[in-house]
Every structure is written in structure tokens, then in C-alpha cells.
């Protein structure tokens, strides 16, 4: 088993944990957690191999996916699934720095990207290695704060920043294309000085090659499937927030892919 | 001639950065084309442009890496345009970012209500753990910047515009009451900021039996200490501040001192949209010596309300407030 086989196996186990969190009393943001999951596995694999690289999940509503990945990658020791949303546990519906492996609280959209840009800038000012991988949602790009930040990144020539867009096509109320389409996104990001790549957001090996921060800022448009890995939810905007029974969770985990 | 607060800030931070490589100076296009920090430490100065919310967030990112960012923009934009970033970064995360904001109150004068800031202290005061300073004059501004740089705490520093202020009192530190006149007698004027200090000084010239205490640090943690000293020195406390009643220093003190009569002479409810300088707009708001003396008199208005019919009128912000309604914060 090579490192990518191991990463894929971790991703599969993490999907099972996300389904478990959907079966919690609170339910969870299932669709976006499953769409971003392979990106998070790749990003944290990159960060674990390089000093000073920070991963910021700017689309913080995918917290269940983040907790699952951090657990199966050894950062969170105990299984967070039984504690998700529970009183006395740090596993809130949007991540906070109380969770191991989380530096910045996210969930109010747009802020995570700006924190990541600040972290990337700190590497330059401190003369230290590393950078930041910011994982944003495609719906999140509707926030003005995102574009303020990209403007600063370009104007101040801030390198060491990789922005990964989880292009799952969905947002809370429906499809991104129906609500606020992202016209010519690659060209828009390129105009902000980013080197733009388009990739399969579920190809961990490919993502691991693209995500390491470099001198020039990079944007990776990662095409994903909302609800990926659970046949009953794949591609359905209704999977944005899901609460299921334990019996349904067992059914879904039996057919994970 | 002393420096105005804005220039004192720049000069002090530039000097402090000589000995502290963690200090980073950030501007949002309102620091002026010639900045002494940029000239002395060009590698640690960034004008991030007109993007206040992103600037605060990026400062939080820098602080998380161990740097000490000072970010300056006008008070209206630093607190309200970037309000959520300030809440999440300086409040929730407790990031040691220092937000230094000139154009506090109506020091922007003829620039109008878009550039006035009569509500900024309410934003900062609502965030537990954020330290708040409203220094008067060059010496106190420099002292505030030194304190902010020495402590790893989030800070909001409110400054005025370009007018120098020769403070006739020494700097007041955290928790300290700066006695300008007195203590003597049952009524104490408490000034917050340069113009209110001048109003209170003029009032005590006319009525020497009044005390005048100046406060610089006005977050709940610092005020808790100051409040104890004020409580032991006067029965009636008249807070004069260039701010709305809601979220101002008077309202905070009133909750801390439920057994004292705490009155507020403040900016009232209006939006002063005519021209004129700082003093003209203050007069339009009713923030005058007469209003201060009226509040200090034994027959102050007894109508309780946050939006009185006449701006600047004394409003008893609390006479029977719940003692538990506001505890001084001691956490980050």
C-alpha cells in the first residue's frame, strides 16, 4: 500500500465518520463535508509533510468532514463522531481552535481565506518556511471579503498561498448556478495573479501534487460531488444538511465508496 | 507644540519597532502618503488598501504566528465596516491585534456622519477581553501605545483627528483615575477623550467645588478598578463623552455602580450633518460646558432615557441597575 492508497483508505473511513455525525442528535452538514473530504485529506497530508504549512477550512460548515479527517489522520485522538454537537465537547457545527489541529475559527464565510492570507504573509515577514492552504466553497465566493482578500494578496505579492475551491455546485438554498453563478471563475482568479489549476476534487494523488504552497499564489478549482461517497446523497443539494437515524447510517456505511 | 494623537501614534510605534521585531504596522489607505514607520522599517509596513475587514483578519493571521500587528484606519471603518472581523478576531480569538483609530467621535467635523464615529466604543465594549483606550494628547497616546505593545492583548485605541491637545494632567494607566481637579465634593465629572476633558476643565473653572477625573482606559476590566475609586470619592458621577449613550462609558459605569447616581452627557440621538469644525459639531450635538454644568447641578433631569429630546442633555443612564448585569471581564 503506497501513501496514496493509505490516504484513500483514510478518506473512506472518514466518510463513515461523517455519516455517523449525520446520525447524531443534531445532524450535520453532510453534503459539503463529503464533497470536501478528499481535499482535506490531501491538504493535511501536504501540511504534515512540510513545516509551517497551515490548512484553513474556510467553509467551516463542513466541520464534520474536518473532524473526521483530523481523527483518521491522527490529529484528533478520540473518535469525534459520538461527541459531535454534544454539550461539553468541542466539536461544534463550525470549527473552533479548541479542536486539535484547528488554528482559526471559521464558518462565517470569507474569514478563513483572510486568516490564511495573514498566515502566509507571516512566513515572509518572519523568514520562516511554510504557507497556507485555504479551502473555500464555491458558494462562499459570493462573499465580498473573499475578493478583498484576493485583491490584497495580489497587491502585496503574497506568495505561499494555495486557495482550493470545493466546486460542488451547491449552497444552502439550492444550486450556485441558480443563485449567483460564478461566471468565468478561472479567468477571474487568474486576473488576481493566481496560477489556476482545475482538478478532480476527489483525486487525492493529483491534489497532493497541486496543493503545496509555492512562491506564486495558486488557485485549485476542485470539481467535487456534493454528498460524495454515499450513493443516496451524491449530487443532491438536499444533502446540504442531513439528520438520519442510526439504522439509515448503517445502510449508508455499508455501501460507502 | 505637541503632536496630535495620530502623529504621536506613528512616532511611538516607529520607535518601539526599533527594539521589537514582532511589531508590524498596517494601514488601510488612511495613514497618509508619508509614514515614519514605512521610512524606518519598510519591510514591516504594509498599506493593505481600502479593505478593512480583510485587513483585520489578516492581522489576526499575523498575530497567530507570533507577530504584533498594529492596524490603523478611521474609527467608523475599523469598528463598523470591519465589525465582524473585530468580533471574531479580537473578541472571540483574543488575538493581540491593536486597532488604532483616528477620527473618533465627531473629530471629522465637516466630513459628515459617514466619517463620524459616535458608536465605536459600543462595538469594542461589547467584546469581552478587548482593551479600550481613549488617550488625550501626545504623552498619553504614546503611553497607551507602549502598553499595547508590551501586553499580548487585543486593543482598540480611539484617537481624534489632527488637532494637538496639551493635556494638563499626566497619563492615566490601566485602572487608574487621573484626577484633574479634586477629588472634592459629592459630584465628580468624568471625562473621556480630549474634548470632554476640555469641557470638564472649563466647567470646574466655573464651579471649583466639582471634581474632575479623567479616564483613558475604559474597557470593563480597567473601569472596574477605576469605578471603585470613583465610588469612594463622589455620590454623583457625571460622565462626559463624545459617544452615544448606548455602549458608552457612562452606561458601563452605571451598571458597575448601582448605588451611585451616574449621569451621562453624551452625543444624544442626532446625526449632525452640517459642516463646521470639531467644536462646531460638538456644539450642534449639545456637548457644551453648559450641558456639563446642567448635569452637575443638584436639579439634573430625572427622565430616564437613552435618546432624550435634546442632544447633550444629561441622562441618568441608571439609578437602579442590576448589580449583576455587567461584570468586568478578566478573560481574553
UniProtKB/TrEMBL annotation, chain A:
GO terms for molecular function: magnesium ion binding. Pfam families: Transketolase_N (PF00456). Keywords: Thiamine pyrophosphate. Residues 55-243 form the Transketolase N-terminal domain. The keyword Lipid metabolism does not apply. The keyword Transmembrane helix does not apply. SUPFAM superfamilies: Thiamin diphosphate-binding fold (THDP-binding) (SSF52518). InterPro entries: THDP-binding, Transketolase_N. Its cofactor is thiamine diphosphate. Gene3D superfamilies: 3.40.50.970. It comes from the Bacteria. Belongs to the transketolase family. This is Transketolase. It comes from Sphaerisporangium melleum. The lineage of its organism: Bacteria, Bacillati, Actinomycetota, Actinomycetes, Streptosporangiales. The gene is tkt1A.
From TrEMBL, chain B:
One of its GO terms (molecular function) is magnesium ion binding. Gene3D superfamilies: 3.40.50.970. Coiled coil: none annotated. The keyword Transferase does not apply. Its cofactor is thiamine diphosphate. InterPro entries: PDH/Transketolase, THDP-binding, Transketo_C/PFOR_II, Transketolase-like_Pyr-bd. The keyword Magnesium does not apply. Residues 309-332 are annotated as: Disordered. It comes from the Bacteria. Keywords: Thiamine pyrophosphate. SUPFAM superfamilies: Thiamin diphosphate-binding fold (THDP-binding), TK C-terminal domain-like. Residues 3-167 form the Transketolase-like pyrimidine-binding domain. Belongs to the transketolase family. This is Transketolase. The lineage of its organism: Bacteria, Bacillati, Actinomycetota, Actinomycetes, Streptosporangiales. The gene is tkt1B.
Amino acid at each position: 500500500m503506497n501513501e496514496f492508497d493509505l490516504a484513500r483508505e483514510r478518506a473512506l473511513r472518514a466518510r463513515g465518520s461523517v455519516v455517523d455525525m449525520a446520525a447524531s442528535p443534531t445532524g450535520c452538514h453532510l453534503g459539503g463535508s463529503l464533497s470536501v473530504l478528499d481535499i482535506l485529506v490531501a491538504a493535511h497530508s501536504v501540511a504534515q509533510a512540510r513545516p509551517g504549512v497551515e490548512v484553513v477550512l474556510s467553509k467551516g460548515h463542513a466541520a464534520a468532514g474536518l473532524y473526521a479527517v483530523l481523527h483518521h489522520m491522527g490529529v484528533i485522538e478520540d473518535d469525534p463522531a459520538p461527541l459531535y454537537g454534544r454539550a461539553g465537547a468541542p466539536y461544534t457545527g463550525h470549527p473552533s481552535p479548541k479542536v486539535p489541529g484547528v488554528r482559526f475559527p471559521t464558518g462565517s464565510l470569507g474569514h478563513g481565506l483572510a486568516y490564511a492570507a495573514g498566515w502566509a504573509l507571516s512566513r515572509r515577514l518572519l523568514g520562516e518556511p511554510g504557507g497556507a492552504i485555504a479551502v473555500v466553497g464555491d458558494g462562499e465566493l459570493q462573499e465580498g471579503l473573499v475578493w478583498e482578500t484576493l485583491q490584497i494578496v495580489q497587491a502585496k505579492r503574497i506568495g505561499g498561498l494555495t486557495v482550493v475551491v470545493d466546486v460542488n455546485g451547491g449552497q444552502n438554498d439550492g444550486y450556485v448556478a441558480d443563485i449567483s453563478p460564478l461566471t468565468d471563475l478561472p479567468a477571474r482568479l487568474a486576473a488576481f495573479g493566481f496560477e489556476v489549476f482545475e482538478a478532480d476534487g476527489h483525486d487525492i494523488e493529483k491534489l497532493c501534487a497541486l496543493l503545496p504552497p509555492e512562491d506564486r499564489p495558486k488557485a485549485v478549482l476542485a470539481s467535487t460531488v456534493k454528498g460524495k461517497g454515499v450513493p443516496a446523497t451524491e449530487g443532491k443539494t438536499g444533502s446540504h444538511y442531513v439528520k438520519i437515524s442510526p439504522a439509515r447510517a448503517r445502510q449508508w456505511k455499508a455501501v460507502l465508496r | 507644540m505637541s503632536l496630535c494623537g495620530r502623529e504621536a501614534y506613528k512616532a511611538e510605534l516607529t520607535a518601539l519597532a526599533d527594539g521589537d521585531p514582532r511589531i508590524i504596522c498596517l494601514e488601510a489607505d488612511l495613514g497618509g502618503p508619508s509614514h515614519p514607520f514605512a521610512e524606518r522599517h519598510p519591510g514591516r509596513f504594509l498599506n493593505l488598501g481600502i479593505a478593512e475587514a480583510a485587513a483585520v483578519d489578516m492581522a489576526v493571521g499575523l498575530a497567530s504566528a507570533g507577530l504584533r500587528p498594529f492596524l490603523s484606519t478611521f474609527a467608523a471603518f475599523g469598528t463598523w465596516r470591519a465589525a465582524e472581523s473585530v468580533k471574531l478576531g479580537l473578541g472571540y480569538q483574543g488575538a493581540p491585534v491593536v486597532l488604532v483609530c483616528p477620527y473618533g467621535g465627531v473629530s471629522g467635523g465637516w466630513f459628515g456622519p459617514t466619517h463620524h464615529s459616535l458608536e465605536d466604543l459600543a462595538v469594542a465594549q461589547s467584546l469581552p477581553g478587548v482593551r479600550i483606550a481613549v488617550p488625550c494628547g501626545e504623552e498619553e497616546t504614546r503611553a497607551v501605545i507602549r502598553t499595547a505593545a508590551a501586553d499580548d492583548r487585543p486593543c482598540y485605541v480611539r484617537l481624534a483627528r489632527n488637532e494637538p491637545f496639551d493635556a494638563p494632567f499626566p497619563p492615566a494607566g490601566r485602572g487608574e483615575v487621573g484626577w484633574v481637579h479634586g477629588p472634592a465634593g459629592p459630584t465628580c465629572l468624568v471625562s473621556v477623550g480630549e474634548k470632554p476633558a476640555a469641557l470638564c476643565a472649563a466647567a470646574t473653572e466655573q464651579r471649583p467645588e466639582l471634581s474632575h477625573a479623567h479616564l483613558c482606559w475604559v474597557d470593563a476590566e480597567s473601569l472596574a478598578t477605576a469605578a471603585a475609586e470613583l465610588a469612594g470619592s463622589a455620590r454623583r458621577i457625571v460622565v462626559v463623552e463624545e459617544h452615544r449613550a448606548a455602549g458608552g462609558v457612562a452606561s458601563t459605569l452605571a451598571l458597575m455602580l448601582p448605588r451611585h447616581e451616574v449621569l451621562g452627557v453624551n452625543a444624544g440621538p442626532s446625526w449632525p450633518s452640517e459642516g463646521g469644525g470639531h467644536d462646531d459639531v460638538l456644539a450642534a450635538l449639545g456637548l457644551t460646558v453648559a450641558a456639563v454644568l446642567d448635569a452637575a447641578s443638584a436639579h439634573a433631569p430625572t427622565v430616564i432615557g437613552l435618546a432624550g429630546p435634546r442632544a447633550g442633555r444629561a441622562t441618568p443612564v441608571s439609578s437602579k441597575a442590576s448589580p449583576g448585569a455587567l461584570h468586568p471581564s478578566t478573560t481574553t
